[in-house]
Write a structure and sequence with these properties.
With 305 residues, the chain is α/β, with parallel strands linked by helices. It has a single domain, classed as Rossmann fold, CATH 3.40.50.1820. The chain has nine helices and six strands. It has helices spanning 16-19, 28-38, 55-68, 75-90, 104-122, 139-152, 186-189, 237-240, 288-304; strands at 4-9, 45-50, 131-136, 176-182, 217-222, 264-267. Strand 5 (217-222), helix 8 (237-240) and strand 6 form a beta-alpha-beta unit.
């Protein structure tokens, strides 16, 4: 019997062409590694890769590079940089008007919700099923933004004039028991927000009903050679130390730092020789050490259910 939904949010880049082919899909190395480590316990998981990138961006990135015609020897570098900048630049919150529903931000939120709805349709028990989320690179930003909007700004996720009641408990991601971030670039993408105003994704410290002894976990891995991955503990010092500038609004937002889990940064080396270059950003999910710890955390949740 399935007991736990595991969501996997990809990082920079677009994956539409490969998403339909499991052998080439972005989650293939992580899934294989966890399946090997978890054995029969893997069958208790609803494995759910979440595609949040947009085909429109992929087409525009390709046209951009075709027009530039970079030297063949550097083509991978150009693709890496163009994809990184394009995804980050496009995923910006627009003002709420008719243009919002044509924005990359709204399309991204829609893709995440579509993935969650698909899980609901295929797994009838997801109504009360807990969730474990793994996010790479910009997927950390997408997961965090979606979670906030689902709880506080559902109109940013729903179709125009859609009733908020249609956003289910599962679609609001209210059952998360653990988080793993890899190569997180949230510090880069929130540079416009003062440190005293940054707020982490909400992860309840004791997320399982009836199990006050079980505590959630939030691990954030980064490689020092990765130009896009950063530690995040320091980003939320004001929030967890009582110095956040919006503390007065916490009760209205249903937030309480004392009842929430804070992230733990873990510095790691990934990718072998390529891991000594900026391309380390692409190798987190192939790391045996990261797969070992994710498997351990998943087993810990399963044991508590």
């Amino acid at each position: 019997m399935k007991k736990l939904v595991v969501l996997a949010f990809h990082g920079i880049g677009t994956y539409h062409d490969d998403f339909q082919i499991p052998e080439r899909r972005f989650d293939r190395f992580l899934k294989a590694g966890l399946k090997s480590r978890l054995g029969a316990d893997f069958d208790r998981l609803v494995w759910a890769p979440v595609l949040w990138s947009d085909k429109v961006l992929e087409d525009r990135q390709k046209a951009l590079l075709d027009g530039r015609k970079p030297p063949a020897i550097w083509s991978r570098v150009f693709e890496f940089v163009a994809s990184s900048i394009a995804d980050a630049a496009a995923y910006q919150l627009s003002q709420r008007d008719d243009a919002y529903y044509r924005s990359a931000y709204f399309r991204t939120q829609t893709l995440v919700r579509q993935a969650l709805r698909k899980i609901e349709q295929e797994e009838s028990d997801t109504v009360g099923m807990p969730v474990f989320a793994i996010a790479d690179s910009m997927g950390c930003k997408v997961l965090s933004s979606y979670s906030w909007d689902a709880d506080h700004k559902p109109e940013r996720i729903l179709e125009k004039d859609e009733d908020p009641v249609k956003l289910t408990h599962f679609q609001r991601l209210r059952g998360i028991t653990g988080l793993v971030y890899t190569g997180c670039n949230l510090p880069l993408l929130t540079m416009d927000i003062p440190n005293k105003a940054t707020m982490p994704m909400k992860l309840p410290l004791n997320p399982l009903p009836g199990r006050p002894d079980f505590t959630s976990s939030w691990l954030s891995y980064y490689d020092r050679d990765d130009v896009l991955g950063y530690p995040i503990e320091q980003e939320y010092l004001a929030y967890f130390s009582g110095q956040h500038e919006d503390q007065a609004s916490f009760p209205g937002w249903n937030r309480n730092p004392a009842l929430e889990q804070r992230p733990t940064d873990i510095k790691i080396g990934v990718g072998g020789l390529l891991g000594l270059t900026p391309f380390a950003h692409l190798y987190y999910w192939q790391s045996g050490a990261i797969q070992d710890e994710i498997a351990r955390q998943i087993r810990r949740v399963l044991a508590a259910l």
